[in-house]
Amino acid sequence: MLEEKLIEVKNLxxxxxxxxxxxxxxxxxxxxxxxxxxxGLVGESGCGKSVxxxxxxxxxxxxxxxxxxxxxxxxxxxxxKLKQNQIRKIRGxxxxxxxxxxxxxxxxxxxxxxxxxxxxILHKNVSKKEAIEQSxxxxxxxxxxxxxxxxxxxxxxxxxxxxxxxxIAIALSCDSxxxxxxxxxxxxxxxxxxxxxxxxxxIKQNSGMSILMITHDMGVIxxxxxxxxxxxxxxxxxxxxxxxxxANPMHPYSWGLLNSIPQPxxxxxxxxxxxxxxxxxYYYPKGCHYNLRCPxxxxxxxxxxxxxxxLEKGHKVSCxxxxxxxxxxxxxxxxxxxxHEALECNNEQF
Length: 350
Known about the structure:
Oligomer: single chain
Largest sheet: 8 strands, mixed
Radius of gyration: 21 Å
Number of strands: 12
Strand order of the largest sheet: 6-7-8-3-9-10-12-11
């Protein structure tokens, strides 16, 4: 791994100003990605993962969505300060994105070939003939059979897995340095999910492209990432290597996510769950955002927000009581730490 960072996000805050109030969707996020690395952002729906990705490419819904503070340094250049005509030169060329639902991302009135060649012509100084040839090659690269025939077909004529491959092909067509994948396997069946993840690993190995993988699936995190940021209620609460997050999670939320994964070998009668829901981004609780759901919360957790501390090189956590988590992990019956009645969230507080 190279020491020079490809992209570095510093104290990113993205808010939405609506009639209901101010939604603090991303409320102080820090991470970096190195060349050739895959970073995973994992957490429940509503934690701010997708808004973080959209902030990087300035694809926020206007005028409500706005980056209110922070820096997004891509190869040393702050993307936040760029004007729309400047960010367009980077978007799709240097940084590309695979969206969660390909059927809504691909234009239904244009053929696959038209959408691919448009991207190539826009960002490369090539003729239409060359763009068509490159489009066919990139379709072959992502494993689409009969690519010449697919060029003249429309998105609705392809299966979900094929459409997702087309989205990856568009993202790869301009040799981007960073690929943002926003839950790219969510709408696919298990077999196709495995194929897409294998494809992304292969692309990364062959091209050296960096990937920001956004998901709620810890299995995907284990499969494709090098490091992981666990995100909760607009913040990253734990940041470490992927092996470490499974072997030694230090934030109660990370631990809860891992223990919510079905593990037949443990012969549990009931799957462990995290009580409550992610708080509304309009009304975060005072102190730690996770306090109402946390099994080790103490008085300070309801009064003061914890700072991110580095436990060891490359392992950071934002929690007042991470040491108490060791007791929870060692317990033979760790379900008792999650007292659902005691920790049940009062939604009226949000």
